[in-house]
Design a protein that fits this description.
123 residues, elongated
Length: 123
């Protein structure tokens, strides 16, 4: 595996995760102010960002060794498919739950952060 390619992928995923956290924070503010429509718009923005994750990271994934690229592509596609499903059915609950396991507790890493750490351990 190319260390440079993996490092660039990790950096990209960290930026996506930061965007997700920013969007979630904006959504929480909107909800606290009574703006259900604004909250839903934030969740849709989050889901769209994640729905494009596999496609938007493809150039970086291609640069990994074949076996590693396959594993990474499969994992990123799973994130994207969940987000696409949430958008298709229009479920605010599903969009809120994207990246969070059922037993998630505040302060724990989300699934993307956990995956970034897995990639970092491989580097």
């Amino acid at each position: 595996m190319s260390d440079t390619a993996l490092s660039e992928l990790i950096t990209y995923l960290e930026h996506v995760n930061a965007d997700v956290k920013r969007i979630e924070a904006e959504g929480e503010v909107a909800l606290a102010e009574g703006g259900q429509t604004a909250f839903q718009a934030c969740l849709e923005k989050k889901a769209k960002l994640l729905a494009g994750l596999a496609e938007n990271s493809w150039v970086l994934v291609e640069r990994l060794d074949d076996e590693e690229a396959e594993d990474v592509a499969r994992r990123l596609e799973a994130f994207s498919m969940s987000a696409s499903t949430a958008l298709r059915i229009g479920s605010v609950f599903f969009m809120t739950a994207l990246l969070y396991p059922e037993d998630h507790k505040p302060g724990e890493p989300n699934d993307l952060e956990t995956y970034i750490e897995e990639l970092r351990a491989r580097a």
